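Need residues for this backbone.
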């Protein structure tokens, strides 16, 4: 009998360890309870005339720079209803101050958080983890401290302030929450994703830095998460997979999106031609890890056969992107970061996505612009407003950002999503019949003779 027990002890140990692993796996869940996107007031809306007046205030620009901006705005995919920081609207972009920078943040942070707590019924005092990601503004006390102070959150809250993480920082913040949930049971977490645009408006004439003014707009989102399985019935999304890829060791990828000063000392954000290559490489590597986690085994085997044929014909950089085409059979919705029309089109082409699948990202870019880390949630909001998201569906979120980083994740829809959101006042008019920007029609006549005239204070200014 004793001898039998001795032989069985290793078996009991293995069973115990397996049981322990199962319990740990069950505890590693991350549910989204709700999210709220920011919508600025109408006095900050950038229609064609407002854009023109802001552009013409920059006395450093000449005719060629105006033409470059005109072409960029026309091809950007951005409409006339996006929102600008208040200091830019008021003409104070050349001398931003800390008070205005914090005021911009307070509007976004507190507006979305007030609505999030009201909608969810969760009190700020119940929040255990708080993560704020704003790349271009880091203050003392931190933005997380401003939130803790405003809502009088508890003293043992785990607060994290993420800076410099770029447009894909929202998923970085969620990954941090997911990791913290492993050691903090039955907790609530809040993530706030936005960007500080006002102090970072570029006033110089370097074309690679002028692009950011054409693309980036005011916006942000606050999200509520929990790992409490008892609240599973309240969840709208469940996080299933998260894959993060970082190409910072590659010099070209590292330098393709960078904040710096130009030759005149004007601070701005530079976007280089290496951006598309960095994005392709980062997405390739990311999907090579993500696809096996999502795609069924039989589909993977079929994909391996097809990939062997592509390998002889294609650029190796694009192989991972073509591999992502197999995702279409496993993923119902693709939530692509609305960083720019070219980025959306190239990702869609690489993955073989239809216009229907790309519509949410294109419409989010058109209506709200590139809101940096908050952009993904405007895309998700469009899907929800269009009643596309049904229980059991899977959503692939793809985000790209400075560094260079590619952070992607997969969500499972926990129930039919049909709540009102930031799109409620305009969703019936989307998609519009055409996405043409009226800038060319109104200002395409700019030439050398009229340049001195249109910059006079008696016209637009």
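Answer:
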């Amino acid at each position: 009998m004793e001898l039998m027990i001795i032989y069985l002890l290793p078996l009991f140990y293995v069973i115990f360890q397996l049981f322990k692993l199962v319990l740990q796996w069950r505890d590693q869940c991350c549910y989204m309870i709700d999210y709220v996107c920011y919508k600025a007031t109408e006095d900050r809306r950038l229609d064609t005339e407002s854009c023109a007046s802001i552009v013409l205030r920059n006395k450093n620009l000449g005719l060629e720079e105006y033409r470059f901006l005109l072409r960029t705005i026309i091809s950007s995919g951005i409409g006339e209803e996006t929102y600008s920081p208040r200091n830019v609207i008021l003409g104070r972009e050349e001398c931003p101050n800390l008070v205005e920078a914090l005021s911009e943040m307070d509007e976004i942070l507190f507006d979305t958080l007030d609505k999030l707590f009201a909608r969810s019924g969760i009190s700020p005092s119940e929040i255990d983890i708080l993560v704020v990601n704003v790349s271009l503004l880091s203050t003392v006390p931190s933005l997380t401290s401003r939130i803790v102070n405003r809502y009088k959150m508890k003293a043992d809250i785990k607060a994290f302030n993420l800076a410099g993480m770029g447009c894909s920082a929202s998923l970085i913040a969620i990954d941090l929450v997911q990791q913290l949930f492993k050691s903090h049971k039955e907790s609530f977490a809040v993530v706030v994703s936005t960007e500080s645009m006002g102090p970072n408006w570029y006033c110089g004439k370097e074309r690679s830095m002028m692009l950011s003014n054409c693309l980036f707009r005011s916006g942000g989102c606050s999200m509520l998460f929990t790992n409490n399985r008892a609240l599973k019935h309240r969840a709208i999304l469940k996080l299933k997979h998260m894959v993060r890829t970082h190409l910072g060791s590659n010099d070209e990828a590292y330098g393709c999106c960078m904040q710096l000063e130009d030759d005149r000392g004007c601070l701005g954000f530079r976007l280089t031609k290496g951006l598309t290559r960095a994005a392709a490489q980062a997405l390739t590597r990311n999907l090579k890890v993500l696809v096996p986690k999502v795609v069924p085994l039989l589909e993977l085997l079929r994909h391996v056969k097809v990939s062997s044929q592509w390998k002889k014909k294609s650029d190796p950089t694009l192989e991972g992107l073509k591999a992502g085409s197999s995702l279409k059979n496993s993923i119902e919705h693709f939530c692509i970061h609305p960083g720019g029309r070219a980025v959306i089109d190239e990702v869609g082409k690489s993955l073989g996505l239809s216009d229907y699948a790309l519509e949410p990202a294109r419409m989010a870019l058109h209506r709200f612009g590139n809101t940096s880390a908050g952009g993904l949630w405007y895309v998700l909001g469009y899907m929800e407003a269009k009643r596309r998201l049904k229980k059991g569906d899977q959503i692939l979120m793809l985000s790209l950002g400075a560094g260079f980083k590619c952070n992607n994740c997969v969500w499972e829809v926990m129930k039919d999503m049909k709540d009102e959101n930031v799109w409620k006042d305009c969703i019936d008019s989307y998609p519009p019949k055409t996405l043409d920007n009226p800038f060319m029609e109104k200002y395409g006549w700019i030439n050398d003779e009229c340049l001195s005239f249109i910059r006079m204070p008696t016209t637009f200014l």
